[in-house]
Amino acid sequence: MALDLRQTVSLTQQLIMTPQLQQAIKLLQLSRLELLENINQEIETNPVLEELADNESDGETDSYINRKEEEKQNTEQESTELPEVTIEERVRDDIDWENYLYEYNTGGTESVHETKEAPPFENIIATKSSLCSHLTWQLNMGNLDEAQKEIGAHIIGNLNEDGYLDLSVEDLSRLTGYSTQKASETIAIIQRFDPIGVASRDMRECLLIQARFHNFGGTIVEKLIMDHLGDLENKKYDRIAKKLSIDIKDVLSALTILKGFDPRPGRVYSEEDTIYIIPDIYIFKVADGYEIVQNEDGLPKLKINSYYKRVLRNKQSLNENARAYIQEKLKSAAWLIKSIHQRQRTIYRVTKSIVKFQKDFLDMGISHLKPLVLRDVAEDIEMHESTISRVTTNKYVFTPQGTFELKYFFNSSINMVGGDVIASESVKEYIRSIIKTENKKKPRSDQDISDILMKRDIRVARRTVAKYRELMGILTSRKRKNPY
């Protein structure tokens, strides 16, 4: 069989991801803060794009400029037609000119209100002190020698966000060039700084430092920290009382004191700022239905600068390079505005579809949440599942039941005894309510919860109950037990 080369012509369809299409897809999956940052960045780099004023609509820019030009022409025309007005100046006789001249020469009368220079704005705003700066201030204010200050600076620089020291004494001695004894002494000094227990190597050392600082050294509190943290975690109080030959009430009293200690002292000076959720869309109950309102607050309204439109109309005022540059920026600005509008419309349509599927949840709460997948909404609004996935990422909606991420409404289904299905989030809510109302002296096991759900026609295995409980951050029945 001979092999030869041939050329053939075929007609195929292929989807090409243009830069404009990539930008539209990118805007779909951005959160509200990311979208705002992207818009501000585009305004800075694109001279054609500008923010629309509050009292100005998108189609009023050109008419506004024309109106101003007409007003200017009318003013000039009126100035040529109206006669000149002459003002006759007369000097009044009742003015005390000597007093007037005296005030003029002396700089005027003294003002009652004194103008003082305002303090800098950054001095007015309260700034949160970081753990590093707080400890460095104490290090510099302490009565320490130069060696201790140098070692202390290395200690402070190697603390993690919890306030623990991620450096051994040997490594600290090798870095600073001082002896291990000097390094250990400096660590002990830093550990007595505020917050107490900082620069500890582990949680046991951190709790011991705090216990001894509060004069609990040699007591049951110190013994619990040194030898019985594992039993405390598993709430085996009877075993601790038996080992220490004390009454269990003394163990519980020491445990109450121990709960007042901070196992992560560095978190008090955490530099992480709280990020508050701003809903992208609101759902309000109106009569028997629900109204969907998009949140446009804070998002700048964009328009294309009319000056560049007029420049392009005048073909003789620009060279080819300048014209090509402005046309490129105009296309980019127009596509950005179109993509933002498309993003808002898509979010609205997806939310409207979710309201249709989850009306029982909006009326009665989480326990009535229905199973829903991306395909259901995609088929309802005739979009692709990937588009629905991008739209529901990092988007939040305000509902009568609270504020939720749009992805919250999409969950798997669990079969019920009668053949119906129930959403997994509804099952989690049932588990949460069962644990909340249980007897703390005898908490329910995962099998007990599974049996209770079976009585409610919800078929859930014990392993599934354990998985949902762990996802919700709920401890096991042994650790939830409080026998006293």
- Can you say what the CATH homologous superfamily of the domain at 131-269 is? RNA polymerase sigma-54 factor, core-binding domain
Uncertain runs are 60-69, 75-89, 100-113
Instruction: Give the helix level as a range of percent.
Output: 40-55%
What's the oligomerization state?
single chain
Number of helices: 23
- Specify the biggest β-sheet: 4 strands, mixed
Outline type: extended
| Overall residue-averaged pLDDT value | 81
Structural class: alpha+beta
Topology-level CATH name of the domain at 131-269? Arc Repressor Mutant, subunit A
Percentage of residues in DSSP E strands:
5-15%
- Which architecture of the domain at 131-269 does the CATH hierarchy give at level 2? Orthogonal Bundle
Task: Let me know the number of strands.
Answer: 8
Description:
The chain is an alpha+beta fold and 484 residues long. Helix content is 51%, strand content 7%. It has 23 helices and eight strands. It has helices spanning 19-28, 32-45, 61-81, 97-105, 121-124, 131-141, 146-157, 169-176, 180-191, 203-213, 220-227, 229-233, 237-244, 248-258, 306-313, 320-357, 359-364, 374-381, 385-391, 424-436, 446-455, 462-471, 477-480; strands at 49-51, 281-286, 289-294, 302-304, 396-399, 402-405, 413-415, 421-423. It has a four-stranded mixed sheet with strand order 3-2-5-6, with helices on one face. Strands 1-4 form a two-stranded antiparallel ribbon. Strands 7-8 form a two-stranded antiparallel ribbon. Helix 8 packs across helix 9 (180-191) and helix 16 (320-357) crosses helix 18. It is extended and about 95 Å long. The termini are far apart.
